Amino acid sequence: MDVVPRRAPSEFDEASSSRFHLDIYLEEWGVFFCHAGRSSRIRVTDIVFVHGRDDFQLLGVTPQLKDIGWLLRHVETTNGVRFLREHADVRTNVASIEPAVRSWIASL
User: In angstroms, how far is the first alpha carbon of the chain from the final one?
Assistant: First the structure.
């Protein structure tokens, strides 16, 4: 997700963009947040761990995946940004699931 009113582009400059990514895979999931030249990347398998940097100290507040909306709102409130859920870039290899994913994103 991005903060600009257009579909979030796949390519972006981590040093100047404000982005929130949620990646969900079969055996792990993770979040990436960048804003004002800083970033955090957290991955979750059977444990929660930092993958690279955690400038926003998200490791200690990353909830279970079912509560990811809380983390998204926390990041927005703490950093004074608003991610435009309606313009999220959804990429999936599951046929016909995009409408359901977009509905879920809108509820976060």
Answer: 12
How far is Cα 11 from Cα 14, in angstroms, rounded to an integer? 9
DSSP letters of 67-105? GHHHHHHHHHHHHT----GGG-----SSTT-HHHHHHHH
| Residue with the two structure tokens 């990353």 | 62
Structure tokens at 59: 């490791």
What mean pLDDT comes out for the span 5-10? Answer: 87
Q: What is the pLDDT of residues 50-70, one digit of tens each?
A: 999 999 999 999 999 999 999
Q: Against a cut of 0.90, is the pTM above it?
A: yes
Torsion angle (degrees, nearest 10) of CA 97, 75, 12, 50: -90
